[in-house]
Amino acid sequence: MAETPESEATTSADNTHWGIAYLREDLQDIRLQMREDSKELREQIAETNKRIDETNNRIDDFNQSLGQRIDDFNQSLGQRIDEVNQSLGQRIDEVNQSLGHQMREDSKELRLQIIETNKRIDSRFTYLITTMVAIAGILIAVIKL
Asked: What's the pLDDT tens digit per position in 72-126?
């Protein structure tokens, strides 16, 4: 019942042989394609690495340039601060000298005013004592009379 004719058995073996041959060709095509893809991928990786290196070099150059610019700015700023400090120091010295001179002048004037006030107080004190002696003399004269 389940007998297969010989013609079908040969055809099946023939088809299997051709199928394996096609399968081998397909495998070879896949291997070639994988090699090409692998080669292409390596080239892309190499190109990417090259671009990364170029970018890193540009970043390094930028960092060096920026560092130099920062150093130049700091040096310029330091010089400017020194100039301002010197100028400010000179102005403070001038103000101190001016204030010292003004204080000496004011102290001379104040001394003169104190001397003048002392003279007035002395003259009033003398006037007061003289008046008290006169009143005491008048009182003694009135009492004796």
From this structure: 999 999 999 999 999 988 999 899 899 888 888 888 888 989 999 999 999 999 9
Residue 58 identity? R
Residue pointed to by tokens 């190499």: 46
| Burial profile 41-71: b = 16 or more Cβ within 10 angstroms, e = fewer | eeeeeeeeeeeeeeeeeeeeeeeeeeeeeee
CA gap 133, 127 in Å, rounded: 10
> Distance between CA atoms of 57 and 71, rounded to whole angstroms?
21
Exposure string for 102-128, b = 16+ CB within 10 A, e = fewer: eeeeeeeeeeeeeeeeeeeeeeeeeee
Question: pTM to 2 decimals?
Answer: 0.43
d(CA 55, CA 61): 10
